[in-house]
């Protein structure tokens, strides 16, 4: 019985790896081109599934994009030409790792800048609070007496 459980666990772990959605009819005969196609498709976003590469997605659009990548590679395009073609066709959103140029530089710099502004504001606030005198001197005599009674209990 233990051997069965061990075998079931091993099978489960073996099959739990990332499932690639590339269909057998999409695979190129040339292993070098196929490897380039796989490398490219892992960096391209499925526009249906959002945060899944076209290599992992089962969506029809992802399949069309995988076929398009392979067609462009067979036609002799370089990797950058294939990516440029897909960006021109679908927009820069198709890249899983967007560029850091142009308007995207603002997006890449916004998070650290906002963090620094927030951190600076917190430091300023905490230092100004530390400089303030305690407000206990503003209590009347009856309030001080009442406070002392409460602290005794």
Any descriptors?
153 residues, mainly alpha, Helicase, Ruva Protein, domain 3, 2 domains, 61% helix, elongated, CcmH/CycL/NrfF/Ccl2_sf, iron, Cytochrome c-type biogenesis protein, CcmH/CycL/Ccl2/NrfF_N, metal ion binding
Number of strands: 0
Extract low-pLDDT stretches. Answer: none
Question: What's the CATH architecture of the largest domain?
Answer: Orthogonal Bundle
Distance between the amino and carboxyl termini: 65 Å
Signal peptide: 1-21
GO biological process, one term: cytochrome complex assembly
InterPro entries: C-type_cytochrome_biogenesis, CcmH/CycL/Ccl2/NrfF_N, CcmH/CycL/NrfF/Ccl2_sf
Function: Possible subunit of a heme lyase.
